[in-house]
Amino acid sequence: MGQEYTTTGAGPVETSTYAPLTPVPAERRAFGTSDAFALWFSLGIGLLVAQAGALLVPGLSLPHALAAIVIGTAIGVVLLALAGVVGTDTGLAAMSSLRPTLGLRGASVPAVLNAIQLVGWGSFEIIVMRDSAEALAKQFFHFSMPLVWTLIFGALATLLAVSGPLSFVQRFLRTWGIWLLLGGTGWLTWNLLSKHDLGALLSRPGTGEMAFGAGIDLVVAMPLSWLPLIADYTHFGKSAGGAFRGTLLGYGIANLWFYALGAVYGLAAGGGDALLTVAFAQAGGGIALFLILIDETDNAFADIHSAAVSTGTFWARCARWSRSSSRWASTRTSCC
Question: CA of 158: how far to CAs of 115, 126, 152, 322, in Å?
Answer without folding.
Answer: 15, 11, 10, 29
